[in-house]
Amino acid sequence: MVAYIIRRVIVGLLMLVAMSFIVFALFMKNPVDPAQFSCGKNCPPERIEETRHALGYDQPLVVQWGNFLKGVAVGREYPADEKMREANPELVSECAAPCLGFSQQLQMTVNEEIAEAAPISISIAMVAVVIWVIFGVLFGVLAAVFKGTLIDRGVVGGTLFLYAFPTFFVGALLINFVAIKWGIFPAPGYVPIAEGGVGQWLLQLMLPGFTLAVVYMAGYVRMTRAFVLESMSEDYIRTAKSKGVKGGKVLFKHALRAALTPLVTMFGLDFAAVLGGAIITESVFNYYGLGKLAVTANNNYDLPTIVGLVLLLGGLVIVANIIVDILYAIIDPRVRVA
Amino acid sequence: MSESATVFEGEELSGGSTPPSAPGEAKAIAGKSPMKLAMMRLRKDKPTMVSLTVVILVVVAAVLAPLLVKMGVLDPFSYNQNLLDANTIPEGGWSGASGAHPLGVEPGTGRDAMSRFWYGITFSLMIALTAAMLSVIIGAVVGIIAGFSGGWVDAILSRFTDLTLSFPSTLMLLALSSLGLKLVQQVTGLPNGPLAQGIYCTVVLAIFGWTSTARVVRGQVLSIKQREFVEAAVVLGASKPRIYFKEILPNLWAPLLVLVTLMMPAYISAEAALSYLQVSVKPPTPTLGNVLADSLKYAQVDPFYFFMPAILIATIVISFNLLGDGLRDALDPKGDR
């Protein structure tokens, strides 16, 4: 068991390192010259070279990558060039481990940017998760119990219908009609708990949360339905039924419980993905979470921020994968042998 | 319950108008190819037949659109400012629908809305279909090699698949756009225009979309490679490519067909999302995505123009999804819904 966990963690770490190299290689080959960009439009060529050197973009790719990894492991200081730091101590920015980079344009570390945006993304993700898990599993069980009836078709068809509309349309629909025209919800705008209390915070998250939840709900309904149906046809369910266990108890204590294991896997990965920011939902509602941060950074050619965000999001998914695999090994002893 | 029971009966009795009372009748026992059985199950599945009809209509519409544009029946590009009021909103209800413009005109420009939606189907389907084919080709090759080779080749390819899955794909599609567009222009020598943007969109969707195919194919190949005909081919000294593509691949057409059908709606939605993020084909060339993304700002003043493209996309996406589900059920010999 311990050997399995260690092996799994090592593979995960290797994947993170590989991912960071791919991302670095891809984005540093970007046609937009980061040195020229942070130096400004009317920048003489020698200033560009100076900036490039100061920011460390003149170093070979592998060296830049190594510095980045070092930053993640033990932290580092910006700007990259040591002489530059010694000459202008007022420009030096400390970036503690795990340092994900420094945005020249915003003059702050990527970690600080993430710390500012993450609460919004996490809030939206939590509300969305609660909506989609509760309704997804509930509707899924409902559809399975009433398999083949109108209820089954209505539930499966309804979620499929919602899912068919692009996310940004659902968001725009909710903003324009539910919030602005009909006034059922207040106009979107994030309110931190510290400012408006839990009620206000939650109210402002309902629409984006629902928009994001719609994306995942259809999948959970179908999966829950399929897993419950599958476990309902197992022998132990027949045994339970024939020894006189009540229908509801069979469903929830036996069938749903078995169906939960694959659902937990799905949930772990999806939750990690939404935690890292919902680009479309945050853009439509104009909530400055990690997704919106990524869009802004992309529009401004803010490469360090993008690289940092990609690695954070990818890292989240890889870590979630490891956790899910380990949980699986704990639940299901057969996995460990492989 | 009753539904699946009748389907089952139908299979066994080969359409059975005659009861199986006469065991001597050759007709009742005649073997059916898996293909015929699948077709029979498909014909009995009403939602799938309806969605198949819609899909065929959509595909025909997509093929006809460029011809109709060339003939001048559809005109997605001409401005009709005279049909707009002072705020560039179409005059009259329903986006100013009339005989000449059945679905009205686009706010802001006065371009014919129906032509833009219709022609948009062509570009969206082209992107989605090409991306789906590319994904399936990459996925099938990776899956077959991983599944058949086993050992360290399988380990490396499987980890590579996991790695690709771990990338935040929406963010990558967005962030790679400037680099990707430039690469496309360098490789193909195209100017920065709708074609280059479309190629970027297609390729990048495929690069992050092949993983599901690879996993499914790998799983299937693991069981196929145990079968006698593959072992026979190996013993006879057939080359690897021959085993991969002549022996194994033909057994995979059913899952691959289902995968392509289910990828189409996913890619149509993805193209729309990319349009919203402005990294897909840009106007004036219409795609379903950029027409919808453009309609967002008129949600309040011209709701008809706001809802039409969304409903169109949803109809197409639902039809492909239902068709894919129906095909999977029909092609799965163990299929019981």
UniProtKB/TrEMBL annotation, chain A:
Gene3D superfamilies: MetI-like. Keywords: Cell membrane, Membrane, Transmembrane, Transmembrane helix, Transport. Its main location: membrane. The chain crosses the membrane at residues 9-28, 120-146, 158-180, 200-221, 263-285, 305-331. SUPFAM superfamilies: MetI-like. InterPro entries: BPD_transp_1_N, MetI-like, MetI-like_sf. The keyword Cell membrane applies. Residues 118-328 form the ABC transmembrane type-1 domain. It is a multi-pass membrane protein. Belongs to the binding-protein-dependent transport system permease family. This is ABC transporter permease.
TrEMBL record, chain B:
It is found in: Cell membrane. Keywords: Cell membrane, Membrane, Transmembrane, Transmembrane helix, Transport. Residues 121-324 form the ABC transmembrane type-1 domain. CDD domains: TM_PBP2. Its main location: membrane. Residues 1-27 are annotated as: Disordered. It is a multi-pass membrane protein. It holds the Pfam family BPD_transp_1. Coiled coil: none annotated. InterPro entries: BP-dependent_transpt_permease, MetI-like, MetI-like_sf, OppC_N. The chain crosses the membrane at residues 49-69, 117-148, 160-183, 195-217, 248-268, 304-324. It comes from the Bacteria. PANTHER family: D,D-DIPEPTIDE TRANSPORT SYSTEM PERMEASE PROTEIN DDPC-RELATED, OLIGOPEPTIDE TRANSPORT SYSTEM PERMEASE PROTEIN APPC. Belongs to the binding-protein-dependent transport system permease family. This is Peptide ABC transporter permease. The lineage of its organism: Bacteria, Bacillati, Actinomycetota, Actinomycetes, Propionibacteriales.
